[in-house]
Design a protein that fits this description.
The chain is built from 4 helices and 4 strands; from the N terminus they run βαββαααβ. It has 95 residues and is α+β, with helices and mostly antiparallel strands. It has one domain: 2-Layer Sandwich (Alpha-Beta Plaits). It is globular. The chain starts with a strand and ends with a strand.
């Protein structure tokens, strides 16, 4: 089992669009092999900063997901001009 921390910074005023997109991504994740659970957290000190914590059976399952056509179909970051910068991901291996 691995936990993935995905940090996102969104453009001010685009918070709801990001949250709506996350809901779509979560629906896709539910059907992906290896996905256990995911949660979205919003920084109370900075409303445009988000963290998604996602648990997967293995890192390869997560990598397959973010490279999938299903993920690409529901993420419209560029088209909608939602993100303020490139997201960063961190992998935490569970013992």
């Amino acid at each position: 089992m691995v936990t993935i921390g995905m940090n996102y910074e969104v453009i001010p005023g685009k918070e709801q669009a990001f949250e709506d997109a996350f809901t779509k991504v979560l629906n896709v994740m539910k059907d992906m092999q290896g996905h256990e659970k995911s949660h979205l957290y919003k920084d109370v000190a900075k409303a445009t900063s988000y963290l998604i914590v996602s648990e997967w059976s293995e890192k390869e399952a997560f990598s397959k997901f973010i490279q999938s056509e299903e993920f690409a179909a529901v993420t419209n970051w560029g088209k909608e001009q939602i993100l303020a910068g490139r997201p960063s991901h961190k992998v935490y291996a569970n013992a």
